[in-house]
């Protein structure tokens, strides 16, 4: 029962991780630049994401431009696109597989098949967490290096946006969920190895052998 509750908790974490992963992939605020200028009324907030660049004006206007050209983008943005999409796909596969393998569901067949399904889903979550952690770390490193570069003007410097933090948290949720699923299945298999099934003895055969021995004594 405790293992089933732990798997359910890991499944909830994985759901939050999947939704956060998708949101971080689509949000345009991976890096943000707030240019207040001399007048706060004309303040402009520029946001750059993986798929579009957006500009928000203090007057309420909001405009976005899609990044159609792939080859013109920096390498870290191209890598972030690929790995974040891969993370979303792997986490979605993990949700489907662990739904079949969880103890609280009636799918997946016998206990061994459900255990293998949970282990495969946990591996998918771990890989999805790694794929989500790599681009967010690389993207943050590029933002910090550009921010500390003295040759870049202040108007062109950016700070990490909300999508980066969402990606970090989602990757952490996926990694924790994957470790819990894999550990629960491993503990179950290890328990089976430590305590092997008992061998059943058949008393009828022993009684027959003892009866034959007693008859020989009287001959």
UniProtKB/TrEMBL annotation:
One Pfam short name: PMP22_Claudin
Name this polypeptide is given: Claudin
InterPro entries, sorted: Claudin, Claudin_CS, PMP22/EMP/MP20/Claudin
Highest classification ranks of the organism: Eukaryota, Metazoa, Chordata, Craniata, Vertebrata
Signal peptide boundaries: 1-24
Gene Ontology MF terms in the entry: structural molecule activity
Protein family per UniProt: Belongs to the claudin family.
Entry's transmembrane regions: 84-105, 117-139, 163-186
Membrane topology summary: Multi-pass membrane protein
Subcellular location(s) of the protein: Cell junction, Tight junction; Cell membrane
Cellular component GO terms, alphabetical: bicellular tight junction; plasma membrane
Family annotation (PROSITE patterns): CLAUDIN (PS01346)
Gene name tied to this protein: Cldn20
Keywords: Cell junction, Cell membrane, Membrane, Signal, Tight junction, Transmembrane, Transmembrane helix
Function: Claudins function as major constituents of the tight junction complexes that regulate the permeability of epithelia.
Principal cellular location given in the protein's record: other
